[in-house]
Amino acid sequence: MFWGVFSGGSQGLNGISDVSAVNGLVAIDKDPTNVNGKNLVADIVKDANNPASDYSIVNDLQALSTGSYGQASETARTSLTKKLIGMQDQKTGLWNGFDKVDYTGRAILALSMNTNQPGAADALNTAVKAVSNHLYQENGGFADSSNTMFGAENAYNDVTMTNALASAGVNVYVPLKEKTDYVAPVQRVLEQHPVSAGNSAMLIQQATWTFEQARFTRNGGKGSIFAFNQTDAAKPGEIVSIKAAAITKKQSIINDPQATAAAKSDALNLVDQILATYVSKLSADSTSSAAIADRAAGVTAFNHVTVSHAAPATPVTPPTVTNNNVTVVNNPASSSSASSSSAATSTSSSSSVPISTPTVSGKPVKKASHRSIVYALTTVKLYRSSNFTKSNLTKTYKKRARINRPMFLVISQQTNKQGHAIYRVKDMNLGKTGYTLSGSKYFAHAYYSAKVTRIKVINPKGINEYGKVNLTSKKRHVKKNASLSVRKIVNYGLSNRMQLTNGRYITANKKLILATKIKKSSQNTRPSTPTATTTGTSTSTPPTNSGSTATTTTTTSSKPTATTGTTTTTNNSPIIIHLGATPTLPVAPTNPVTPSNDAKTITTTISIHADEATIASGSIKVNSGASAFDALQAFAQQQGLALTYKGSGATTYVTGINGYNAGPAGTMTGWLYSVNGTEPGSSMGAYTLKDGDSISMTYNK
């Protein structure tokens, strides 16, 4: 790279340009107008008034846009923006040059820092569409097919353009526009391993800030991460970042094998206090630089939280069933007379089913939701704000045939002032962002995730088979109405792929294919454990190794210690585990709640989080070969949690824990689980645990 040419400076081939120096100094909160008595900004303003090259225009504009440096700087910014817009090709929407991809990317980045300048927003929107139409490649990269010498795809250009698009507000974690068979730009950058050892320092640094920019934009940040003086631009992203840091810290505390339970509790409470303090500070920040600084200070405070490793003074006693944010009422008919203590004895002579009532604090109005791609099943309306009024209506999407249904990226879910459950979404075709009613009545996942074994092509233009999961290395074209056999579903970012029985890959987009056969989950049953003699009746289904069913018994007795919940279990209705007020349970828990003496057991750690707090955490032993859901069932019984679920095996779906209830399967609300920090992409009932695995349950709504 010729630094003197690209920066407009005169430092020679090995010098550090004024532009790069300004960017770096401002990033570390240093003053670029006084560097050992030298004003770097003044030098850039001089060059901006008489740019040495086209590259000087974009680079000088970026440097001057990092802060407010006086009237001369602002005048130069306005002049440079006007020049840059005037250089845009009115036919293609791109910027011409010996490397069209590189210069267009740099121009988009510079304009994203100056959207308040006349004509900048329109030029930016035109450029983003042009990149998608002319430069975006099927593999997720960017290339100029008209330039055989400099137009070929390369890692530098992919990084530059991905960073630029993210700065312009584009979600680079998904394919651009409606090109669902294309690879997402971020995925393509990752595939090239730009930060691996052996790469040039320039590529490593550019890739690093590209990933940071992509994360920043996805978390709600506006504009470029280098526009440090933009009011509030970084606040949404920094709040998300500090919450993520808090969750990471909590997980490390929970997983500390040497810490006592009391020490863990104290440390977790301290993390919650720090989080509340810094979220409040961030909410009050008026500039990006202040938000960035407060987020960094909060993360540092998390890192200073330590956990005592002192051994307990007394032997650890076996866990008992205790109330964990749950009040147990033994007699619903006269709940006012029930004691608030979990060990209270029921005064009712006829034992009713104990009811678990959540007593946790009120749920927040807004909660981040797991991002996903959906399509509209019926007519939906998009509003510019969460207040659904006629004046706020921006677009109505009429009900369309399946192959033409509009697709949306779900950003979050909340409840608006009118009491409606709504999504914040982004139209994946038009790029519009807004709010709409949520729920399975209006939307469904746009990609298959079930165990599909055969599909039919419904896209009039057919689909392609590829040799690689990122849908590159095209093997053949398949016409409409063709039937294909599927081996498995493969998770790929926010979208899914299908691997055919011939080893090739196709899209799992429901607009293009139709599942004609779905594999039913197999059930290996074993006889249930006999229960204690009762005077009531019980209906049970034999439990399975996948934790698909639970056997419980209705007991009528004058002794409250013999009272348990009542459930008639089927595969189609919710299975509710009601835990009594005392730790005595007359029914043997289902596999693998209590491992047998002759069975090999494994240990897994489980933590359950909701409303930014930890509901329960600890470890549990289960039989070898148990599923993640088996472990959750066992843990719920151990901790005294109210757990509800539907389905069995691969269709198991957690519907609620301690009153935090999920939406129906297929929606973007409810309980998410991860194992060792990674989301497996399959049902808990189908995931087989290994010894030492750590399960995290997080409530998203």
Please, could you describe this protein's structure?
Pfam families: DUF4430, DUF5776. Residues 447-513 form the DUF5776 domain. Residues 311-364, 518-574 are annotated as: Disordered. This is DUF4430 domain-containing protein. Residues 311-361, 527-574 have a biased composition (Low complexity). By secondary structure, the protein is of the alpha+beta class. It has 5 domains: 3-218, Alpha/alpha barrel (Glycosyltransferase), CATH 1.50.10; 235-303; 366-445, SH3 type barrels, CATH 2.30.30; 452-504; 560-700, Beta Complex (Ferric Hydroxamate Uptake Protein, Chain A, domain 1), CATH 2.170.130. It is built from 14 helices and 24 strands. It has helices spanning 3-7, 18-27, 40-49, 54-64, 71-86, 100-112, 120-135, 155-167, 185-191, 201-218, 235-254, 261-284, 288-303, 628-639; strands spanning 326-329, 355-358, 366-376, 380-383, 393-397, 407-415, 421-427, 433-437, 443-445, 452-457, 463-466, 474-478, 483-492, 495-500, 505-507, 513-518, 575-577, 601-610, 613-623, 643-646, 653-657, 660-661, 670-675, 694-700. The strands form 7 sheets. A 5-stranded antiparallel β-sheet has the order 8-7-6-3-9, with no helix packed on it. A hairpin with a 7-residue loop joins strand 11 and strand 12 (474-478). Helix 4 crosses helix 5. It is globular. The protein starts with a helix and ends with a strand.
